[in-house]
Amino acid sequence: MEEMMKEMMKEMMKEMMKKWKLSTAQEAASRDALRFVMEPAKRAGEQYLIWAVTGAGKTEMVFPLVEYVVRRGGRVLLTAPRRDVVLELAPRLAKAFPESEVIALYGGSEHRWEIGEITVATTHQLLRIERCFDLVILDELDAYPYHGNPMLAFAAGRACKARGKMVLLTATPPREQQIAMRQRRLPHAMVPVRYHRHPLPVPRILRYRGLSAALGSGRLPSALRAALDESLQRGAQIFVFVPRIEHVEPLTRLLRRACAHAVDADAVDGTSSRDRDRASRVRRFRSGEIRILVTTTILERGVTIPRSDVYIMDADAALFDEAALVQMAGRAGRSADDPCGRVYYVARSRTDGLTRAVRQIRAMNALARRRGLLIEPAARREANADV
Fold first, then answer.
1. Which CATH number belongs to the domain containing residue 240 in this structure?
2. Neighbours of 154 (CB within 10 A)
3. Which residue from 95, 164, 194, 262 lies 20 to 30 Å from 213 (Cα-Cα)?
4. pLDDT tens-place string over residues 90-136
5. In what order do the strands lie in the sheet with 268-270?
6. Which residues form the Helicase ATP-binding domain (predicted)?
7. CB–CB of 309/239 below 8 Å?
8. The pTM of the whole model exceeds 0.85
9. Structural domain of residue 132, as residue ranges?
10. Do 39 and 178 fall within a single domain?
11. How are strands ordered across the β-sheet holding 160-170?
């Protein structure tokens, strides 16, 4: 009987993997996570982590897990710290699982107290949910306001049934999770490659005297101006990240002057969490109307531009830790049409966080290469020639 059950589970897994049409790297991670979900829980609060590079398609990897639990009459929660992630995920899940009830919970949502077969919620909504879900999937566990908030971590764990399972998703796991993985206390899968199978862009470091000095003098260093010119000449849109909101406006003005020979003033703009028109500016950036957007870590996640380069000013600032630097770098190279976007860490000195970020990106590329997941250089040149 036990062998028969194992064979049935094996066939079910094979069927689901075929249905969702995952890449080789995605399928390997999804299969291992599904095996974790299928196994009876040995204790309360069991967790599994999927560490997938930015742009690897984390959401698609959990579809087989969701299907398995819902098929068995269970309830699934997908939760994320940010409301915009919930608003993006809910319709995708409704489309993927048309026969299941999908409910979205966030501040100001239509639903308040209901839960569905599949519930998508911000982590703050979990404070009023207890022991409801057979599977809790936590996306962006490293993001504000979840990361470093023990109250929200407790709420996420409490939302899970006593023998339920929790699957964590992240591109930049916090140090405690990385240590737990190394010590084999946290089962996990790593997805070191994006769907297009090109390596992640490795950041280049540009030295300068600092953003305050540049703003004070009204001039950008020549190496930075040359890099910006190359980005504009190749048709890229440019993210320029700064550590402080106060830097957005003056740097926007400086870039309008410095890049006036290449783009109109209206094509250079800035936004931050204080900007009431942020959504409008992001839309204009997505449409290509804005070529250079100066911003803060508010846009380190969630905005994907097909052909983009990334510049991180004062990359050595204390605010920019390893996770933030990797996330911001992850805005580049996400499209198959432009997989080799450029990333520049513009800094006064090389900090530990900056060094670790570059090391993490290189390590993921090396792992993808060892696993044979990357397009070979000759094929890569042919793919780029077609663009």
1. 3.40.50.300
2. 12
3. 262
4. 999 999 999 999 999 998 777 777 889 999 999 999 888 999 999 99
5. 204-207, 343-347, 308-313, 237-241, 292-295, 268-270
6. 39-191
7. yes
8. yes
9. 10-191
10. yes
11. 102-105, 118-122, 76-80, 133-139, 160-170, 46-52, 188-191
